[in-house]
Write a structure and sequence with these properties.
The protein is an alpha/beta fold. 18% of the residues lie in helices and 26% in strands. α2 runs parallel beside α4 and α3 runs antiparallel to α4.
């Protein structure tokens, strides 16, 4: 085990021999680290916090700290982080609250850039990118493969759909459609599908073509959301559509139907 002499590890913390703990790190008594984690320096990990394997945490990051919520009274809530994440400088991750489900989670394979804040009871999926100073208020859900641009705040209880790309500086106050490219040039709006990102993740031309058709119905056909949903359901039932495309449409439809704050169109 490589532990710098200035690091402080509380009794009860679980730190495998394969981990590296750099200068001036502080690890609380209820923290469990996975194999091959690397804490660069000045990292604070507190509360009932579990990290998976092969996570790299850079300087001045705080994970599992108490939530920024006046109702929090020291309850033993949790933070759970998966494997193979890179968490850069000055990131803050707050643990959950009893009224919000009691746990804040981050999946695996994520890049969390400098100065990102992940608020209490938020849930970040796997293979996500949160660019510099992206800010998730409490109770935010970011689904798999989504990208939140730099300096983009996301309002409480919003959901960012899978494979969505949010441009830098976008203020998100409603749910972000999956597969979408959403930005605020003058006002928040979706500009179509995230074609480059989807192509990189192996979406076939047929899947992309059908998603583009679906988004034309949503964004460019001058239909209200209810009418567009009916058209999408009709499109989903066409017999010639391949299974993967049908699943894409089904997910898009269910995302819109379960949205509580409305979606950015």
């Amino acid at each position: 085990m490589s532990i710098h002499p200035s690091a402080v590890i509380a009794a009860g913390a679980v730190v495998p021999e394969s981990c590296t703990v750099g200068p001036f790190c502080t690890i609380g008594p209820d923290v469990v680290l996975g194999e091959d984690c690397n804490l660069i320096s000045h990292v604070v990990i507190d509360g009932h916090t579990g990290l998976g394997a092969r996570n790299t945490v850079h300087a001045f990051t705080s994970i599992g700290v108490s939530p920024q919520d006046l109702k929090y009274q020291g309850e033993p809530t949790e933070t759970t982080i998966g494997d193979d994440n890179t968490i850069r400088e000055c990131v803050t991750v707050s643990r959950g609250t009893t009224k919000g489900g009691g746990v804040t989670t981050i999946g695996s394979g994520c890049l969390i850039m400098a100065y990102v804040h992940i608020g209490h009871d938020s849930h970040v999926g796997s293979n996500c990118i949160l660019a510099n100073a992206a800010t998730l208020a409490g109770h935010v859900i970011v689904e798999d493969y989504a990208t939140v641009g730099a300096f983009s705040p996301v309002h409480q209880f919003c959901t960012v759909g899978a494979h969505a790309y949010i441009g830098g500086g976008t203020i998100v106050t409603q749910d972000v459609l999956p597969y979408s490219l959403t930005s605020s040039r003058r006002e928040n709006k979706a500009f179509g599908i995230n074609k480059v990102g989807l192509s990189r993740r192996g979406f076939s031309p047929e899947r992309l073509q059908l998603l583009q058709k679906a988004y034309r119905l949503l964004l460019a056909a001058k239909l209200n959301t209810s009418s567009a949903l009916e058209k999408l359901k009709e499109l989903e039932q066409l017999p010639e559509i391949e299974i993967s495309s049908r699943e894409d449409l089904g997910y898009l439809i269910s995302f819109i139907e379960r949205s509580q704050r409305g979606v950015i169109k």
